[in-house]
């Protein structure tokens, strides 16, 4: 069983620095945090090996790429088809993320679209996947709180 490593004080300070300036060089981060560049590099390497950092591609606004609409598709799936459905969803370029749920829906699929007609097409594509029983689509009207983790980092 794998052990979970929790961020320590140096990790916390370094994470805050990375969050505030994700493109900062290791030497700049070291100066801001008050540790050596080697310490910064070792921590960044450890985070990579532990999959502690998610991809930075999520910082690219889909609207910049021509996809201004964002929606969530709540999906009910035949349970034995969950893995093949997930694989089929991976092939839909407009699918941004898929989370398995408990409760009334099995999957929460975040999608982006060029316009309402495109969203209709994408929802139909999802519904056409073998094993998908039904979907309910909700359009994101406004993001009120963006994805964040900085507030979870304890103060030193």
End-to-end distance: 30 Å
How many helix segments?
5
Q: Count the strands? A: 4
Strand order of the largest sheet: 2-3-1-4
Strand count, sense and barrel status of the largest sheet are: 4 strands, antiparallel
Assign an overall shape: elongated
Global structural class: alpha+beta
* H and E string: HHHEHEEHE
- Overall average pLDDT: 91
| Radius of gyration, CA atoms, in whole angstroms | 20 Å
Unreliable stretches: none
Helix content: 25-40%
Q: Approximately what portion of the residues adopt beta-strand conformation?
A: 15-25%
Short structural description:
By secondary structure, this protein is α+β, with helices and mostly antiparallel strands. Helix content is 35%, strand content 19%.
What do these coordinates show?
By secondary structure, this protein is of the alpha+beta class. Helices cover 35% and strands 19% of the residues. The chain contains five helices and four strands. A four-stranded antiparallel β-sheet has the order 2-3-1-4. Strand 2 and strand 3 (107-113) form a beta hairpin.
Characteristic terms for this protein:
156 residues, alpha+beta, 5 helices
Helices and strands in order:
Layout: H1 9-20, H2 26-33, H3 37-49, E1 69-77, H4 82-90, E2 95-100, E3 107-113, H5 116-127, E4 132-139
Antiparallel strand pairs: 1-3, 1-4, 2-3
Helix pairs in contact: 1-2, 2-3
């Amino acid at each position: 069983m794998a052990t979970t490593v929790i961020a320590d004080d140096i990790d916390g300070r370094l994470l805050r620095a990375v969050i505030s300036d994700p493109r900062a060089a290791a030497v700049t981060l070291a100066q801001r945090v008050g540790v050596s560049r080697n310490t910064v590099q070792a921590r960044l390497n450890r985070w990579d090996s532990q999959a502690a950092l998610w991809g930075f591609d999520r910082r690219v606004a889909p609207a910049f790429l021509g996809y201004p609409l964002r929606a969530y598709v709540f999906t009910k799936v035949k349970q034995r088809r969950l893995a093949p459905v997930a694989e089929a969803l991976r092939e839909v370029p407009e699918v941004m993320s898929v989370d398995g749920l408990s409760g009334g829906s099995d999957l929460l699929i975040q999608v982006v679209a060029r316009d309402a007609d495109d969203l209709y097409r994408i929802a139909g594509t999802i519904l056409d996947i073998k094993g998908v029983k039904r979907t309910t689509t909700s359009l994101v009207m406004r993001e009120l709180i963006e994805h964040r983790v900085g507030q979870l980092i304890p103060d030193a």
